[in-house]
Amino acid sequence: MNRTISIIFSTLLLFISAAVSATANEKNHLLDNLPIYSTSYDPTRDAFKDGAAAVKLATQTNRRILIELGGDWCKWCHQMDAFFDNNPDIKQKLHETFVILKINVSDANDNAEFLKAFPEPLGYPHMYVSEQNGSVLWSQDTAEFLSNGKYTRESFLAFFKRWQTQQQNSNTPSQQKS
Length: 178
Hints:
- This protein is of the alpha+beta class.
- The chain has one domain (34-164): Glutaredoxin (3-Layer(aba) Sandwich), CATH 3.40.30.
- 53% of the residues lie in helices and 16% in strands.
- It contains eight helices and six strands.
- The chain has helices at residues 2-32, 47-61, 75-86, 88-97, 112-115, 153-163, 166-171, 173-177; strands spanning 64-70, 98-104, 126-130, 136-141, 146-147, 150-151.
C-alpha cells in the first residue's frame, strides 16, 4: 500500500513539475518574442501598420493594448523601461496583460496624424489603454505610477489588475478563490 501511494505521489509530482515548467516556458516565450513595436520608440516605424499588428495580436491573445508615447530623448521613458527590466515579474505581468505599442513622439516623427484621435498627453511617457479593437478606454499619466520620484510595483500591479480582460481576470488564481 505504501509503495502504491509513493508511486502515485511521485507521478503527481512529475505532472506538477511538467506543468510548472510549461508555464515558465510560455512566460519566457512571451518576453523572448516581443514584436519590435513593443520594445522601442522608432521614428522610422509606421504607427498605423504597427497599430493594426497590435490589434491583431491583442485579438489573438485576448489582451488589451497599451499604447505608450515617448521617445529615446525621454528620461522618464528610459527610467520606466529600466524599472521593468529590474522587476522581471512586473515586466512579465505587463506583457501578459497588454500588447505594448510604443509610439515615437519626437522632432524626427511626431506621429501627429496617428495621434490626432487621442486625448492630449499630459507628459511623456504617456499611456492609453485600448480595447482589442483599438478603441481607447483610458488615458494614463505615468507620473501617477511614481512615489518619491520612483516607479512603484504596487501602482503598476493595481493598474494591470484594473485593465485585465474578463478572461484574464477569471484565470487569475487569487480571483478564483473569491
